[in-house]
Amino acid sequence: MLYQDMTSRDLLQQRTTLPSGDTAWRPSPLVTAAMEGSLAVLDGVHRVNTGTFAVLHRLIHDRELSLFDGSRLLRHDKYDAIKEKNSFSDAQMTERGVFRIHPSFRICALSEPPTLGSSTGQWLTSEVLTMFLFHHMRDLNQQEELQILNQLVPHLSNMQPILDLTHKMREAPDANLKSAATSLSTRQLLRIARRLAEYPSENLNETVHKACLSRFLPRLAQTALDEELEIVGLTSSSNKITELEKATTCEVKDGVLRIGSTTVDVHNAESKMKVPDVLFYENPQHLNVMEGMLKDFLLGEHLLLVGNQGVGKNKIIDRFLHLLNRPREYLQLHRDTTVQTLTLQPTVIDGVIKYEDSPLVRAVRLGQILVVDEADKAPTHVTCILKTLVESGEMHLADGRRIVHSDSGIPPSERVIVAHPDFRMFVLANRPGFPFLGNDFFGAMGDIFSCHAIDNPDPQSEMAMLRQYGPHVPDHVLEKLVLAFGELRDMADQGLITYPYSTREVVNMVKHLEKYPHEGLATVVKNVFDFDMYNKEITETVVEALHKHGIPIGANPNNVALAKEFPLPALRLEASWEVRRQGARKHTAVLQCPVEDKPLRVKGPVQMSVHSHQMDRTDTRSVKFTEQESFWTLPLHETSAIADVAVTKATVSPMCLYTMNPAKKQLTYIDLYDIFPSPQRRSVSYKPRIHLAPLGFPLDSTIIVHEEFSNITLSVNFETGQLSRLEVGSFVEATAEKISKNFRQQQGNFKICSTFSHEPDGIFLHYKQESGSITVFHMLEGRAYSIETPVKIQDIQMVSRYDWLITEAGSGDQYLLSHSKEQPLDFHLQGILDSASTKEGYRLELAAPVPLPDSHLSAALDQSIKSPNRILISNDAYASVAVGLPDLVRCSDVEMVNSSWPQLRSKLPVQYLPESGQVVRILATWQVPKEVYPDGQRPRDLSAYLEVTDLVNKHVRYVPIPGVMSNHVYNQWFYSGASSAEVGVVMAGMSHDGLVTVDNGGCVRTWQTALFYLDQSLKSWRNLIGEGEKELKVGVCLIREGSDFDPKFGKIDPTGSPHVGGGTWAGGSGGMNTAGLGGIGGPFRLDIGQDVHQIPDWQKEKLQSQMPEDVKRAAREMGQKAFKERLKQIKMSEYDAELYDRFMDGVQGQIKSLRIILDSLQAKGKERQWVRHQTHGDFDEAKLIEGLTGERAIYKRRGEKEPEMGSPQQKPKLVRLLCDVSGSMYRFNGHDSRLEREMEAMLMVMEGLESYEQKIKYDIVGHSGEGYKFNIVDSSKPPKNNKDRLDVLKTLQAHAQFCISGDHTLEATKHAIEDIIKEEADEHFVIVLSDANLDRYGIRPKHFAEILTSNEDVNAYVIFIGSLGNQANVIAKQMPAGRAFLCMDTKNLPQILQQIFTSTMLSSR
């Protein structure tokens, strides 16, 4: 086995010492083979330096060789001639240092082919070409490969789909598929075949992903692989896999280990001290991985575990070996690892070199498990010597010994080590590349191991594990950590941050919180991220993710922004209600209503498609504490409007039913477009009115959806998607109703009352306004009955399960319809006498179905009282308390709190919270008192206010609801005339007096308004910050009370020394009034390159509040003056600056993401290597004997190697951006903002690539109907300042505005590919931005695809940034896999560019 550090001397002879201490030369295996007439196999010619390999030139051509000890090897005939001429014997020839090369001696060299077009790996020089006869080992075709597999695996089955996929990927023109296909080598296919023969139930999709280690493939390669798997029919069974993981358990019983369904006898270890025993908390995901490892172990495989740092690779291995009771040898590699240190440890004892066996040799000899950790840190040319040991069980050691396979038949001796049959190698490696800066161990040697991708545990597994590490840490804290770090890991995969924070960091935080429970979570989390605080972009991204999940890092515990309380007017007696149960006119006072059973006809069920969507929860209490807890955003259609909210959300036009569980990240929705009539088929003024009625257990997965205008009632199972239509009455009645609808005008709307639908029988009422009939549905029993009353019903409120309050249309009179649990069909109607005349416009909006507790009732009425009661909510009062309703026989006193705002014309959303006795309305911003407005001005950025009336504590609060994130014209039409006309927000109650609101932009918000729960949440929030530890903090305050606030530029320090505080020096940090960073009152920011000492936000806010207004104004004027001077320097007007800032505001985050990605790319080029033959540095073990003989150049040190003579200079990547500046970009910019998106994309690229010219050079070329090439930015002259970049944007817009119609996309792409390859570069990229308007000009996607793939040395891609309808989707599907992207939002562009740049990583393997 040849390796890169091998010298010409190592190739021929090695120096050693004799027992006497004298040095001697030992022949290498190559020289021994030459003298014995053996076949010398030189494996890895491509790794050895060409100068080193040149020493064999004479041996191969002349069959002669001069050795370093002065001896010579001669061709057999020449040797025989000299021996015969001088009459020497063989012994005499040996004494003279002349040896015979056996005529049977041959050399067989093995090598990988050189990489075409690469500046490295070009080992096949003109000198090497003359040394060998070359044979190219072509890839086996499918039939040949199948034949080999059948011969080696007799009971082979189920391999044909994988073979089809493998050969399809090998022959694919796409470089991404070819790169993934290298993992499916014949050796790997043989391993898969053996496993499938032993475990035929294995999922083939997962098997391929495991073999390719797809978890760590670049995004494009992952996508291409998934598409090919789907094409050949190898689909994943994710549900089954999840169930299997949950079902995986582990136990050791009667000497047998069982993991999942796989069993093995526990090993009887002799060296029990080397059996690892580690603290390990089992979780389903890790157990599932260990079961896969056990299957491979039983098949005799060596294992490779690849994963990010800190995901538990060592823990899994140690636990696995502990369960097996297998002793281990541990070997940790590093960047300084050499071939010698990997195998033997040379030492000098009494002048004699002694070789101590490394853990590798001991494990081979004793049959133990060798755990090789951090394998990616060692250079691949070092670790490649493990290849022969793993593949064939053989290895040559530096002391001349040889390891042979246990089945070789060679007896052990002093020079031969027979490998123990129980020997296995478990290798652990991080994923290659940034930020771990490891080598691609999997790419170099992955197919000789059975590979397992180790990822962070899924949220459920991680929660289960963390509960065991921190049994006393609250669950809500653990959940915040799991969700926040899960988000950070996703961001690392997308390239938004560099380090993929692992389970290790979370476990350490939980252990800290377990031991120090009073320390705030924010403080503990900050300790983990302090290292990243040096990078502003990464800091902002990380803090934003932590805030999103409610970790208040950087928050001030005093930053509480609850709504202001206003005193509630006193309750006063408004009326007395008498429920007449008997009297002189009994037939009018108490009326028994007839009840008739109605057939409940269920049409269906019909199976509807249940779609899913990822939902991101954002915690709103991260920086300040408010009534709002969190929010989500629904993926609404642009013409959708929110209709109602219950346990689910529904939208109209198109009709859609959304279901979400706040504890989960998944949202499901069912499209009901085909169920309800569309507006086009009805009147133009038709506006769907939806009401939702959630049912309780055991029907808790069912919801009733009722549309008031069309009177369609549906029963929808939102989990399974089964939909049924509910109808009552006979078929004759239903037919007559349909016919009569066409001949009479509709009067009133159909309504349902679902106050008690959550009870087990699923009861709800259905009625038509201005009629006297009520239909009662019992969903659990599947029955319905109707009740006929003599009252024209306007509204029904269920004040209890058996008492229903009816309001008569027109007169507004109240009636009580009652029955009992014992006689459920005996309904009695009683009129209610009101002592006060009904006010004009009075309307009862809601009656509470449950009473106030006695303590709350007493507090509200300021008297000790125990009585039945109900809260009544009308449109002319905050709230009313009806004492005695509905249980007292005689009368109920109605005490009312009159509202301070005028009577409302429209019905507003209202909700009653039973535990706290609060009444919550949604009011428009103009309907609240002016005292609520900040600064006395009505805010424009709010949707509405929550009016929280607290009868118990006698106050009212107005909680602001943030503005709609996205609003459409359709919403204004839909909400006109609705109950939420002024606000566009619907509301529903939750458990523990919580509230949920949904605005017409699809934003779902949860709220707390009850004081008891707010107090609990505030304490918990402050505990997260760690307020209790505040008095223990020690620090130095840099701000002097009573300081001079006057802003100034400050003095220039000629030494450039850093200054913190003091208010003297310009460019300082943490100061008060000079230009610098991290301070409080300076006129503008000034960075001189020093560390920033940031003043805490709470201190900054405090001192800024003390700063006089004239000082603030002076600082601002000074900053504006400096800004205008800077504009003059770059000849930029203030208007231009504002315009540039407007574009920059849209892409600031994207520029930050792009720079993070470029930092990771740039870091890969900074790796250093060992420089040998130095006179100082670290001792080189390979030159131990030279040191004994007095040689001085026996050291090595790390450094950047000078390039060898003739090796090409490293070039930057070259990127050409083809911008579509055709007329359609300008024409349809108003449709989808495509031109603005393109301009933002160009600004992002120009800003993001600034200062990265040594890594990436770019130019921007435009194409339109005018022609295929308009140079906009030249790679040799990139824009240097804001004005130059703004000029580029203006050029793009102007060209699109004034160019003629036409399209030159194909010509521009073809010319760019042909032109860019002419310039030398590390890699060539052509990125085409297009609006997909190709059909208009007869451009076929197939022709476009051919041009993109016309040159394999140019990585060409197309990004569609605009589309009319689904144009872009249709074209993208016809493009080669991974070559086309859709970008309808600029924020996705950095991730697309990252995929493009990283897609070539594997293709270079």
TrEMBL record:
Listed PANTHER family: VON WILLEBRAND FACTOR A DOMAIN-CONTAINING PROTEIN 8
Boundaries of every VWFA domain copy: 1214-1396
GO CC terms in record: cytoplasm
Pfam families: AAA_5
GO terms of molecular function: ATP binding; ATP hydrolysis activity
InterPro entries the record matches: ATPase_dyneun-rel_AAA, P-loop_NTPase, VWA8, VWF_A, vWFA_dom_sf
UniProt signal peptide: none
Origin species: Capitella teleta (Polychaete worm)
Gene3D superfamilies, per database record: P-loop containing nucleotide triphosphate hydrolases, von Willebrand factor, type A domain
Name assigned to this protein: VWFA domain-containing protein
